[in-house]
Structures are given as structure tokens and as C-alpha cells.
Amino acid sequence: MKVSVTISGLARLFGDDLAAVLSVAQVADEVGINQLVIPDHLAIGDRTDRYPFGTFPYPPEEPWLEPLTTLSAFAAVTKKIRLGTGILITPLRGALVTAKTVATLDVLSKGRLDLGLGTGWQREEFIDPGAPFADRAERADDIIRACRALWSTPPPVSFSSPSFSFKNLWCEPRPTQVGGIPLWFGGGATLSTASRIAELGNGWLPIGAMSDDDLKRGIELIRGSFAAVGRDPATLCVRAGLPAVTDKNGDFDLEATLVPVPALAAEGVTTVSLALGRFLKNRDAINPFLSELGAAFS
Predict the structure, then answer these.
(1) pLDDT category, 62, cuts 50, 70, 90?
(2) Which among 62, 64, 75, 10 is positioned nearest to 36, based on CA atoms?
(3) Cα angle, residue 292 at apex, residues 290 and 293 outer, rounded to 5°
(4) Which among 144, 143, 148, 166 has a CA at the least distance from the CA of 156?
């Protein structure tokens, strides 16, 4: 089992010193955290009540660092820790921009990128009339198919899809990782999620407060889809959120938080994830938390 930390809750933890996230990345690297994750919102509207996975945990004025830019900065100050998105809202970015930016980050990090992908939930972010909210899932799949072609096909590369097409392009450099950048897809425990991951991805990011039964059903569905297309079901990776447990004083209780980990591992979860902004009270709590968490998974 590996452990991932999502850096969220920036306003409360970092105030007007958002660059302090770089020191968090350095500490996480030093204490043995396996992965750091940055979430994605280009902008936030006032209709956070539309959030489909419960109550949206942050107000509209919460700052959101652009994830690929931030992970590039993390790559410069770390050596071992893997760098992930959770999730990158794929249909908000064009295929060529995504392919170039992601490949550049993988090269500069020396092959440490894990790309978590999703379609987004907030209609207000989709302001480009050429990239509407309505067909975002189909367009996102075409973007990833195009990226995979640009990353792996001998150039010049041509690609055709219902969303866009191009012919005879070179998009260099290509990703460093042998076998390509691991692609993780967010989604529910559905056949569409399973089919998407089996065709295009390496891992699943269960979204929201998913029950144990839904988590188990989703893993079984995806493993079945892997087998159906000739892929080894045992290679599926799953990064599941771990709800933080606090004691009677409201302080984080690591021992109680980690109780579900053996059961999650038995179900097929390969990485558990904790989000800083959901439970830590202030910046002073970050380094002790990371040290304790790293020791627990060493």
C-alpha cells in the first residue's frame, strides 16, 4: 500500500503565502510520502450547490493553484516523490496544449508524473463556446486518445476523431516514462468508467464518499473490463480517499484513520489518499503530520 497527500485548503493553511507549498513538497519528499497531488479548478462560480459528490468543501474565493504549473515547481525541489493531479479537468484544455505540457512535466521530473483525469462538474468553468459543457466527456476521451498518439506513435503523427483532427505533426519532447505516463480516471463505479479505464488508463480514482460496496463493485467492473480487452486485471491501480479521523479535541488521529487500510488493500486499493485541507487546522500542523504519515508507511 502506498500513501498520497492532496494539497488543498490553501487559504486556511497558507494564507497569502501560497509559495509555501514548495516547502511542503520538500518535506513530503524527505519523509517518504509516495505521492503529492494537486486538484484543479480554473475558476469557481457561485453555484457550488451543484457539486454532485456532497457538500463542496470550499467557498468560491478559495485559491486553486494551476496543477501542472505547481507540479513543475515541485519537480524542481524534490527528488523521489511522485507528482499527481487529482484531477486535471481534461476538456478545459486542448489536446496539443495538454500533450505538450504533460510531456514537458514528465521530462523535467525525470518520469515522476501520474496524471489523474476527469471531466469536471461546474458548468461555469466552460466559458469557451468551442468547448461546451454538454459534450465534455466525449471530448475528453478524444483529447486523451490524441495525447497518447502524440506520445507514442512514431512521428509525424496523424489523428482523427469526432472532436478534432490533425495530420503529420511532431510534438516533442515525449514523456520519459517507459510505457507512458500512468493515466488515472476519476468516476463512479459504472460500466462507462470501467470501459474508459480499460481502453485508455492505468488506474481509478473513486470520486466522493463511496461506500465499501460501491468501491468493491467498481474494482470488479474495471478488472472485468481489463480482462475483456486482454489486459491483466491485477495491473489495475486504485487511489482511494481515506477519511481523516479526529479525536475529541478535534486533532488528527492517525492510528484511527489508518484502521480501514488493510481492508482497502484486500479489496484492491493500491494507494490511500489524505487531503490536507479537510482536517489540519493550520500550517504548523503540516510537517508533523507528514512525518508521522511517512513513518507509518515506511
Answers:
(1) very high
(2) 75
(3) 65
(4) 166
